[in-house]
Amino acid sequence: MSKHLQPLKFEASASFASKMDTQDSLKGFRKKFYIPKHPDGKDVIYFTGNSLGLQPKTIRSYVEQELKDWETMGVEGHFRVKNPWMSYHEFLTEQMANIVGAQPIETVVMNSLTVNLHLLMVSFYRPTKERHKIVIEAGAFPSDQYAVQSQIKFHGFDVQHSLFEIKPRENETILRTEDIEQTIAENGNSIALILLGGVNYYTGQAFDMRRITTAGHKIGAVVGFDLAHAAGNIELKLHDWNVDFAAWCSYKYLNSGPGAVAGCFIHERHAENFDLPRFAGWWGHEKETRFLMKPEFVPIKGAEGWQLSNSPIFQLAALKASLDIFEEAGMKTLAEKSKKLTGFMEFLLSEIHDKRISVITPSDENGRGCQLSIRVINADKNLFKAISDKGVIADWREPDVIRVAPVPLYNSFADVHQFAEILKSCLE
Ligand SMILES: Cc1ncc(COP(=O)(O)O)c(C=O)c1O
Predict the structure, then answer these.
(1) Does ligand 1 come within 6 angstroms of the Cβ of 228?
(2) How far apart are the first and last CA of the chain?
(3) pLDDT at site 179
(4) Cα separation of 125 and 134, whole Å?
(5) pTM score of the predicted model
(6) Residue 305 carries which DSSP code?
(7) Which of 77, 266, 361, 414 has the CB geometry, 3.0–4.6 Å to 303, for a possible disulfide?
(8) In testing the pocket of ligand 1, which one of 205, 249, 252 has its CB within 8 Å of the most ligand atoms?
(9) Neighbours of 313 (CB within 10 A)
């Protein structure tokens, strides 16, 4: 493997890892999470926070509070309890907005990710005979591919002509921003929507969302992002970047549990555009008059106006517990540690000097989050099995990649060092 220049001088030793952990201002956060155990009784090395984040220990008490209120108050829990359910989702708005760099009016937590993508496309994918294409990255997450294909068909267009996949250059795995910009410019008149993953789930590449949004707007297209692998992972500035819309889940880096409630962003400039078509439900209706039960739909201004149903309170309670931890840690501090932690892992992998593995994730620390995708020669899954047997929880993504994500909230430099030692011993 080629060695990359690192801004920080790393050393391949347990003592260096231990020194880094001692200096880490976020080290106390690890004990706020349950770390699963290996059959030998030790903590596993958990590197799948990019798939399902670990459970914050506080979640139980947050959910129990709501169970208690339901037990003792019944329907009155909507109004006369510590956290009235009627407005519970509002308690999360500002914290979630901070995580994605949004204004509160631009953010809401609701539904699940693919559902939100569909709801947003109902409003923001308005194909015409001339302008009907959706641009995605080749190798986008399957659910996104299914979602955009079905939207194209729903509007009576044909996937072959209306879906445009941007591919990396030959013998490359990462998309170059200039190539994305050029593709957008070349297909200018026919593109209705650009919908990319903010961080690609397979390669771990973080796209330059600001530049892509600018390029999309220049040709008159709408630009949205699936932030499943970006929210809580990298610093985002959705408002400043002028992104039109985005959606993300909160069971990965946002640690809110399997199937947790998702997030949604709609730029402020669309907040009062009531001409945008949308699928409506009563929870998106103006709050003051919602209970007058009139047949005419009057949307709330901003992202809240896209809500359909009343909120899943236990899910929101779990998310609130997690967002409180994020607020305490701070996204900027997390991103700073993340760069060091992932940089350390990249350094240790480069020290292994084994041609059977190579990192396909960009080496530029601004071109990725915490995930590194390790391509295994001949797609040999035995390496993945071997590290799993030794207590590493990573994941295998077909055809040939082991994904590892050292998460700054609960992973340590010692985790990264132990992982590299295990990987080395398994290769030997
Ligand atoms: C990038 C991406 N998009 C979409 C999804 C689908 O999410 P959901 O099942 O919450 O709709 C996932 C799930 O892991 C994902 O990683």
Answers:
(1) yes
(2) 16
(3) 97
(4) 8
(5) 0.96
(6) G
(7) 266
(8) 249
(9) 21
